Amino acid sequence: MLATALRVPEDSQIRDPNPREVAAPKAQARPAPGPAATGIGVTIRDLRKDFDGHTVIEGLDLHIPAGQFVAVVGRSGCGKSTLLRLILGLEQPSAGRIALETRAVRTPPKRIMFQEPRLLPWARVVDNVAVALAEVGLSEKSGNWPATLSGGQRQRVALARALVSRPGLLALDEPLGALDALTRIDMQAMIERIWRAQGFTAILVTHDVAEAVAMADRILVVEAGRIALDVGVDVPRPRRRGDADLAALEGRILDHLLSERAPA
What we know:
Number of helices: 6
CATH class of the largest domain: Alpha Beta
Number of strands: 9
CATH topology of the largest domain: Rossmann fold
Number of domains: 2
Strand content: 15-25%
CATH architecture of the largest domain: 3-Layer(aba) Sandwich
Strand order of the largest sheet: 5-6-7-3-8-9
Radius of gyration: 18 Å
């Protein structure tokens, strides 16, 4: 799992010279984050991304308020990971604009967490992360080599490394897909707890609709490079597995995905 630190320019805001409102569902109310919270807002207008003459993202408009937890789901190849990489600046758009906004005096970093925990095998765990191990419950493993850790422990170290500088935006690209079911549930709860405490903006790309409805304020279904469904998750936290409202929302999203035309 690679955690890459990127910074927005030092200006406190980046604005579109021709702003227009981009509608978004009302975020679910949640406890106010602590005083250190400095989430990054994201506004996207008429975004397009082409690869070798093939359009992956087309005409996409989106606004993510600072501090919101958004899950992005969709079929393989629909453009959801490309959208995440564009937001992070790891890819450049073919057309359109992405604006990152923060109220902080100094812009906090963005961090990304991928499915594969790409820790540095030649550095001990303490050197991979330096701080934040206590927050993920691994202080006693600080002197270990990555090879001695379980899959779930490696994911915790990668999460700690991503959180070390208190990011304004945490991007999660299928970070828990390789974990067993119980470890995955534990990691979901840990990410939610830290998000609630720190107040960063979180964008989760996942194939797991149950994971999306359990963790997010809002779910975006991407289809053929566009947002086909944009729904708020109006279920109080902490959420209980088996909750009827969560199950109904999961069913609605799955029905939408199943109704899509299968890719050629």
